From TrEMBL:
<protein>
    <submittedName>
        <fullName>DNA-binding protein</fullName>
    </submittedName>
</protein>
<feature type="domain" description="Helix-turn-helix">
    <location>
        <begin position="38"/>
        <end position="87"/>
    </location>
</feature>
<dbReference type="GO" id="GO:0003677">
    <property type="term" value="F:DNA binding"/>
</dbReference>
<dbReference type="Pfam" id="PF12728">
    <property type="entry name" value="HTH_17"/>
</dbReference>
<dbReference type="InterPro" id="IPR009061">
    <property type="entry name" value="DNA-bd_dom_put_sf"/>
</dbReference>
<keyword id="KW-0238">DNA-binding</keyword>
<dbReference type="InterPro" id="IPR041657">
    <property type="entry name" value="HTH_17"/>
</dbReference>
Amino acid sequence: MATKIITSEDLSTFKTELLQDIKNLLTDHAKIGFKKHYRTSEVLKLLQISSTTLKTLKVNGTLPYSKIGGTCFYKAEDIQHMLEDNRVD
């Protein structure tokens, strides 16, 4: 097995990339975090779930929603309640 040497430049590059990734994540959550209502795409990103999982949550009544035209909206409060109600200790 070959040995690979990591230089301080490698570590510096890694640090810069890692910090940028963290900034991007925080920015994404900050954009979503202060809204009262979310669209489907925002809920998928916020909860990191598939569209199939979200559809299941809607169909079985776990996550209430409102539909205006063809767009579904979810209350931030309902999302929070769903997470709290389904918490596993």
